[in-house]
Specification:
Layout: H1 3-15, H2 56-61, E1 93-94, H3 97-100, E2 109-111, E3 118-124, H4 129-147, E4 152-158, H5 163-174, H6 180-189, H7 191-195, H8 200-210, H9 215-222, H10 225-242, E5 249-252, E6 255-258, H11 263-273
Helix pairs in contact: 1-6, 4-11, 5-6, 5-10
Length: 274
């Protein structure tokens, strides 16, 4: 975690108490709107041994009680199973990476060497729980392992599914450029506090103040119609030109992958392209 991100998060945890509703967020795309209901577990079958009372007269007159018990053979140690290597996920389709990297409506938000052998473009929505999971659990290890070592260039692009997600993206864009990644990281870590809040605008205002916004700059950002139009244009271009239909979706060296990934899975995918 960068120092700027840690600073934002400390200020957030120290000064904000935003009432979060216990609401499960909707799935990130039309493809994920239906959630499969797990079948109700069957009650565990329990076996009870029924003990019949012994016939004392017969017991006394017949064979003596057995006194020997069979000794179980000593358990033999077995070698530990080798670690299972993560499988490389299958691509959803191919994209023209040269076209993907053409300038769009907004300046590119990217980290890493522009000449890195692997380029990852992530389309995400700020209210998407799968995106939050990826950024809270996978992004930082991947950044340390591949971005910081010059192997990967990582680009983030906006794909908001609702007005609250669009507002969060706009605020990140209104922050100083070097604060873009720390701010989206902060918002993902505290996603339930603002995305599920009854008054999302007020929740975003309090978080934005901790990131240096004033009431006036907050209002000016969210009433910037051109910025909103540009954020929506990034989403529309992704959908029409590159087949983005769900978040998160990753375009990696000319191939499209939908859905979140663990550190091991994304590492295996990146390694396959190095």
């Amino acid at each position: 975690m960068s120092l700027s991100e840690m600073s934002l998060l400390k200020r957030l945890m120290g000064g904000v108490a935003v009432t979060a509703l216990a609401v499960t967020l909707a799935a990130c795309s039309d493809e994920k709107k239906e959630t499969a209901s797990a079948p109700e577990p069957k009650p565990a079958a329990t076996e009870s041994a029924e003990t019949k009372p012994a016939d004392t007269a017969t017991t006394a007159a017949t064979a003596p009680a057995a006194s020997e018990t069979a000794q179980a053979p000593a358990a033999q140690s077995t070698p530990a199973a080798p670690a299972v290597k993560a499988e490389v996920p299958a691509a959803d389709g191919d994209v023209d990476m040269a076209k993907v990297l053409e300038p769009g409506p907004l300046p590119e938000m990217a980290i890493g060497d522009a000449n890195a052998p692997v380029t990852i473009v992530e389309y995400m929505s700020m209210t998407c729980p799968h995106c939050a999971t990826f950024h809270n659990e996978t992004f930082e290890p991947i950044k340390q392992k591949y971005v910081d070592t010059g192997k990967v260039r990582f680009i983030v692009r906006e794909f908001p599914f609702d007005p609250r997600a669009a507002a969060a993206f706009m605020l990140a864009r209104c922050a100083p450029t070097e604060q873009y990644f720390p701010m989206i990281s902060m918002l993902f870590k505290q996603q339930e506090q603002w995305a599920a809040a009854e008054n999302g605008r007020e929740a975003l205002l309090q978080m934005s103040k901790l990131a240096g916004f004033t009431q006036e700059s907050f209002e000016a950002c969210l009433t910037n119609q051109k910025l909103l139009d540009d954020v929506n244009a990034v989403r529309e271009r992704g959908a029409k030109e590159f087949g983005i239909a769900a978040t998160p979706t990753f375009l990696i060296n000319g191939q499209r992958y939908s859905g979140g990934m663990s550190v091991d899975t994304m590492s295996a995918l990146i390694d396959s392209k190095l």
